[in-house]
Specification:
The complex is a heterodimer of chains A (about 270) and B (about 400). Chain A is mainly alpha-helical and about 270 residues long. Helices cover about 75% and strands about 0% of the residues of chain A. The model of chain A has no long low-confidence stretch (mean pLDDT about 90). Chain B is elongated, with a radius of gyration of 24 Å. The chains are: A mainly alpha (about 270), B alpha+beta (about 400). Chains A and B meet through helix 9 and helix 10 of A and strand 6 and helix 2 of B.
Chain lengths: ~270, ~400
C-alpha cells in the first residue's frame, strides 16, 4: 500500500498547490470585502441579481448536453458494433477535432455563421435574404455541442463496447424484440457511460465564456462571461470568487440529481 | 415421452467455408432429456444455437411441433436457454432477473410475483430476491439462470454447458437437481456438455457428435455397451480397440485367436474394430488364459487398479480390483458378452491402443479434444492429467 501511495505523491503535491490552495483563496475572497478585507456575506447576497444569468447558463448547458447525448449515443453505439480495425479509424475521427485548438474551432464557426460569413454569402449568391445565424442562443448551443461532443461519445463508446453480447442473446431468448433489447438491457447497462458523458459535457459547457462571447450576443451572456469580467474588467475579484463558488455548488447539485435519477453511482471514464 | 417436438432435417452450418455442422438429422421427443455430447469444436453448441434461433442454419430445416421455424426470431420461440456462464443481467437483482421474461409477456403483477416466488423456491433461492447478481456465488448464479429460463414455462429448455464453471462437488449436486427439476416439471431438456459422465448419468438420450457430424444416437446404455465406431467407444469411457476379422456370425479373430461373441450381420472375413472394455477383462493364471501378457504399469485409482498389460506389443488397459506386480505374466479370459464388434470407420486405428500414448501426447496439445486417449502406462503424474482432462 505504502509503495502505491508514493507513486501518487507528485499528483498530490500538484493537487494541493494548484487546486486545493486556489480553492481556499477563492473561498477567502468570496467571503471578504474588496476594500476592507473584513469578513462579509455581501458578495453572496449580491449574487441574487445574477440569478437569471445562472439559470440561463444552466439551461443552455443542459440543452447542449442533451443534444450531445442524442447525437453521440447512436454514434458511440455504431462504433462499438464495428469490426476492430474500423473502430480504431472511427475513434480517431471522433478525436481528430480535439487536436485543433478550441479557440480556432470556435473562430471557424464565426467565419461560417457570420452575417457576412461563408454560409450567408452563399445564400445571398443564391438570391435569398441572409439568415440570422449568429449572436443567438442557437449559435451558442451549436458551439457547445460541436466542441464537447467527443467528450460524450468516448465514454459511451467504451461502456457500450464492454456490454456482453450474451446478455443481448439472453434478452432475446426471454422475449425481447430489438427495441426492447435496447430499452431493457443495452441502455440501462450503458448508464455509467451516459452519466460520465453527461458530466464531462455539462461541466465545461456551464462555465464556458469564450463560446458565448464569440457566437452569442449581449443577450446570451453566460455566468462564465460574468466571472471573467469581474476579474478582468470590473476588478472585483471578491464578487467573481463568490460567483465561482456558487457555480461550483450548482454544478455539484446538477450532477447529484442526474446520478440519483439514473440510479447509478458508477462512472465510466474513457 | 411420446410425440416428437423438434426435428432437425439436414442441418448444415458453415462459417467462412469452414463446415461446422454437416447434415445433422435429429428428432427430439416431448419431455425428453437429450444430451449433445462431444469434444470442443464438434458442433454441439452450434446445434443448440440453431434450435434457440441465435444462428440460422446455412441449409436444412428446423421443425417445432411440425412447423418450420427457420426464420422465427429467438424471442418468438417457445424455448428458453440457460447460457454458458449464465449471462445474468447485472443491472437487475435476483427477483427482477427471474421476472424479466414475465414482465415482457405483460402478465399481471400478482401472477408474476407468484411464479417468481414459486420458482425461487424450486431452485432453493428463497430469501435471495433482493440480492444483486454480483453478490452471488457461482452455484447461486447458476440457479438464478435456471429459474429465469424455467419461470417462462418453456416447452423446451436449452442448456449450454450449464455446470462447466462449477467445482466437481457442486456439479454433482446440480446434476441431480437438474434431473429432478426436469422430471417434476416435465419439460424437454436439450443439454450440451463435453463431460461423458454427466451425459450418461442424466440423459434419456445421448447424441455423440464429432467433426460436425452425429456419430451415434442412443440411450446411455446403448452408447456405452454398443458403440458404433472407434470414436464413440473411446470418447465414452475407456476402451481397448483391436483390429479383428469377423470370420462368421458370432466368431471373431484377433491376436491370431478365435473368440466367440454376440455380434452378427457382418460380411464373412470382414475387417472390424473389436472393443473390449477395461472392466470386462478377467485376469487368470497364464495357463488358463486365452491370451497371455506382461504387466507394464499399475496405477491405484481408488476403486480399482489401472493395469496396463502388453500383449504382443499391443498394450491394453485392464481395470481390476486385485493388484498385480509389474513384469508379472498374466492370462486373461474374455466371455462372448465382453466383446463388442464395430464396423471399420474413419476413426479406425486412431484410438484404443494404450501403448502409443507417449508419442501421442506430444501431438495433442488440447486435452479437451480427445481426453480419453490420454491414458499413460509409464507416469503417474501424466495419468492424473489424463483423468482431469476427461472430467472437465
Amino acid at each position: 500500500m505504502i509503495h502505491t501511495k508514493r507513486l501518487a505523491t507528485p499528483y498530490i503535491v500538484w493537487m494541493v498547490l494548484f487546486t486545493v490552495v486556489p480553492l481556499g483563496i477563492v473561498f477567502y475572497y468570496a467571503f471578504t470585502d474588496s476594500i476592507t478585507g473584513q469578513f462579509t456575506l455581501e458578495n453572496i447576497v449580491r449574487i441574487q441579481s445574477y440569478m437569471p444569468i445562472f439559470i440561463k447558463s444552466i439551461w443552455l448547458a443542459l440543452i447542449s448536453t442533451l443534444v450531445c447525448l442524442i447525437i453521440g449515443y447512436p454514434v458511440a453505439y455504431y462504433i462499438a458494433q464495428c469490426p476492430p480495425s474500423r473502430q480504431r479509424l472511427l475513434y480517431l475521427l471522433v478525436m481528430l477535432p480535439m487536436c485543433i485548438s478550441f479557440l480556432l474551432r470556435t473562430m471557424a464557426w464565426v467565419s461560417l455563421l457570420d452575417d457576412t460569413g461563408i454560409i450567408n454569402r452563399f445564400i445571398q449568391a443564391m438570391g435569398m435574404k441572409p439568415l440570422p445565424l449568429i449572436r443567438n442562443n442557437g449559435a451558442v448551443v451549436l458551439g457547445m455541442v460541436y466542441n464537447y461532443l467527443p467528450y460524450m461519445i468516448l465514454p459511451l463508446y467504451s461502456v457500450i463496447l464492454k456490454i456482453d453480447s450474451r446478455l443481448i442473446e439472453a434478452a432475446q431468448d426471454l422475449g425481447c424484440n430489438s427495441p426492447q433489447v435496447f430499452t431493457k438491457v443495452i441502455f440501462p447497462l450503458s448508464m455509467p457511460g451516459v452519466i460520465s458523458g453527461f458530466t464531462m459535457v455539462f461541466v465545461p459547457a456551464v462555465s464556458t465564456f469564450y463560446i458565448s462571447q464569440k457566437l452569442g450576443s449581449s443577450g446570451t451572456t453566460l455566468i462564465g462571461d460574468v466571472i471573467e469580467s469581474q476579474f478582468k474588467a470590473a476588478y472585483n475579484p471578491n464578487l467573481g470568487a463568490a460567483l465561482s463558488l456558487i457555480l461550483m455548488v450548482l454544478v455539484f447539485i446538477c450532477i447529484g440529481i442526474t446520478r440519483r435519477v439514473s440510479g447509478t453511482e458508477e462512472v465510466a471514464m474513457p | 415421452m411420446s410425440k416428437e417436438l423438434i426435428r432437425l432435417i439436414d442441418c448444415s452450418m458453415a462459417f467462412d467455408d469452414e463446415i461446422v455442422l454437416d447434415s445433422i438429422n435429429l428428432s427430439i421427443k416431448n419431455e425428453e432429456f437429450l444430451t449433445l455430447l462431444g469434444p470442443s469444436g464438434c458442433g454441439k453448441t452450434t446445434t443448440l444455437r440453431i434450435i434457440g434461433g441465435f444462428l440460422q442454419a446455412t441449409s436444412g430445416d428446423v421443425l417445432f411441433d411440425g412447423e418450420r421455424i427457420n426464420d422465427v426470431p429467438p424471442y418468438q420461440r417457445k424455448v428458453n436457454t440457460v447460457f454458458q456462464r449464465y449471462a445474468l443481467f447485472p443491472h437487475l437483482d435476483v427477483y427482477e432477473n427471474v421476472a424479466f421474461g414475465l414482465r415482457l409477456a405483460k402478465l399481471p403483477e400478482q401472477e408474476i410475483d407468484d411464479r417468481v416466488t414459486e420458482m425461487l423456491e424450486i431452485v432453493s433461492l428463497k430469501g435471495f430476491e433482493n440480492r444483486s447478481i454480483s453478490q452471488l456465488s457461482g452455484g447461486q448464479q447458476q440457479r438464478v439462470a435456471i429459474a429465469r429460463a424455467l419461470v417462462n414455462r418453456p416447452k423446451v429448455l436449452l442448456l449450454d454447458e450449464p455446470l462447466g464453471a462449477l467445482d466437481l462437488r457442486l456439479r454433482k449436486d446440480m446434476q441431480q437437481e437438474l434431473k429432478r427439476i426436469q422430471q417434476t416439471l416435465g419439460i424437454t431438456f436439450i443439454y450440451v456438455t463435453h463431460d461423458q459422465e454427466e451425459a450418461l448419468s442424466m440423459s434419456d438420450t445421448v447424441v455423440v457428435m464429432d467433426r460436425g457430424r452425429i456419430q451415434q444416437i442412443g440411450t446411455p446404455e446403448d452408447i456405452y455397451n454398443e458403440p458404433e465406431n472407434a470414436f464413440v467407444a473411446d470418447f465414452i469411457g475407456e476402451s481397448n480397440i483391436l483390429d479383428g476379422i469377423m470370420l462368421e456370425d458370432y466368431v471373431v479373430k484377433f491376436f491370431g485367436r478365435k473368440f466367440r461373441c454376440l455380434d452378427s450381420g457382418f460380411e464373412p472375413n470382414e475387417p472390424v474394430d473389436v472393443v473390449v472394455r477395461p472392466e470386462d477383462v478377467e485376469i487368470v493364471s497364464p495357463e488358463e488364459g486365452q491370451l497371455t501378457g506382461t504387466v507394464t504399469s499399475v496405477t491405484f485409482m481408488g476403486v480399482h487398479y489401472d493395469t496396463i498389460v502388453d500383449f504382443h506389443g499391443f498394450k491394453w488397459l485392464i481395470q481390476t480390483t486385485e493388484h498385480h506386480n509389474v513384469d508379472e505374466v498374466i492370462g486373461i479370459r474374455l466371455g462372448p458378452d465382453d466383446i463388442h464388434i464395430m464396423h471399420r470407420s474413419e476413426y479406425s486405428g486412431m484410438f484404443g491402443d494404450y501403448s502409443s500414448y507417449s508419442e501421442e501426447y506430444d501431438e495433442m496439445n488440447d486435452p479437451d479434444l480427445y481426453p480419453e486417449d490420454l491414458s499413460d502406462e509409464s507416469s503417474d503424474l501424466e495419468e492424473e492429467t489424463a483423468e482431469e482432462g476427461s472430467e472437465t
